[in-house]
Amino acid sequence: MIWFWLALALGAGCAIWAIAIERHLYKVRFDSLRVLPAGSTTLRVLHISDIHLAPWQRRKAGFVSDLIKLKPDLVVNTGDNLGHQDAIRPLLAAIKPLLEVPGVFVNGSNDYHSPTARNPLSYLFKPSEPTHGAKLKTELMTNAFEVAGWLNLNNHEGRLNLHGLDVGFIGLDDPHDGLARPETLSGQAGRVATSEFVIGVSHAPYLNVLEALATNSAQLAFAGHTHGGQVCLPFKGALVTNCDLPTKNAKGLSQWNFAGKQMWLNVCAGLGTSIFAPVRFFCRPEVRLLTLLPKA
What we know:
The chain has 296 residues and is an alpha/beta fold.
């Protein structure tokens, strides 16, 4: 009988930690890559993703606002900013300081529709099926981003001059919700072909998306969506990625080779969760500050 009560107490403790504590322990993770052309100036890239903001989440909103203190040279936003149908204005208020910095963005499905309740255990068996709650006024968010100068990369490309470096960007709308148009990438790549460095951006890091970005000249890609697994185990890590990305690559840096084209991938575990699954276990909410260095 004592083992039953010990197991019950352990389970309750884990649940309290995952629901009430860890999901609020926001963290900045730092990493670096030596990938820029020789002679380039170092670039500090702030990667934010999967904020899933709800109007009452003031601590999270404050964390986002304070990220400007990191003094990034570029912000890459890989979507799922919204976590509630009334979250657009709180999100824009939180992110306002970062809009002063050059940035690029793509959307996730939660930027188009409010979340819906679903069985969280279903994620253990296969990637979730898209479900659509109330349609959101997404253009209020995307218009504000664009007015501030951020590049909309939803099935589109763009270029920015960052400290004298001509950086090209190619991007896709959310592949998890069937909105990506990989056939547009060859045209995008052609329009940024003379850039000195090319970055790919997508919300969800499906393998076919990574291959499409790499084969269309992206040297570095940014993605979110996985939540780092959201529920992880000690020593094992993520149990799922909610796509076909291997669990060992659920967050952080990894290198990929497709048809002889090499590309780095940076996956951000994100800051939030669905309001219907407010749990993080051995997977702290995060943003990533990636310092890009010139090749020797």
